[in-house]
Amino acid sequence: MAWFVGTVLLVALLAALLAPRLLRLEQERQERRADEHYRKQLQAATDHAITTAVRARLAEPVVDLHVTIPMRVSVGDVIARALEDFALEVPRDHAAAMLRHRLEFRGHARWPDLITDAFDDEEDHTP
Question: What is the pLDDT of residues 112-127, one digit of tens each?
Fold first, then answer.
């Protein structure tokens, strides 16, 4: 019976010593998950904004084969899409960075007829 009490006391001591570390690890894990969730939602909103711009460009009627209709997608489009789709308020610099990344990833950044403010300097957007 004494060994049982000793074992229980040892387990209680270990739990008391490890509890703060386990709580900290759990908080860090939750923060990483929240950051990843935010990034995924922002990426989805950005992709939706780009897709909407591509579809709007393709929906324009072709009246002259020598005139290329530009694709317009702005940081404001990404912010509006994130707010509309996910009720997510996104800072302008985060939206601009993700828009730059997704335009480059999808190959739209090299389009000569792309009109966007994602590559503008942040100094131009002072409130």
Answer: 888 888 888 654 444 4
| Nearest C-alpha neighbor of 56 from the set 65, 48, 66 | 48
Q: Quick one: tokens of 34?
A: 């929240």
The amino acid at residue 95 is: A
Rounded Cα distance between 45 and 80, Å, is: 9
Nearest Cα neighbor of 74 from 98, 55, 58 is: 98
CA 40, CA 115: separation in Å to the nearest integer? Answer: 24
Q: What share of the chain is helix, strand, coil (3-state, %, to 5)?
A: 70, 5, 25
The arithmetic mean of pLDDT across residues 76-101, rounded, is 95
Distance CA 120, CA 96 (A): 9
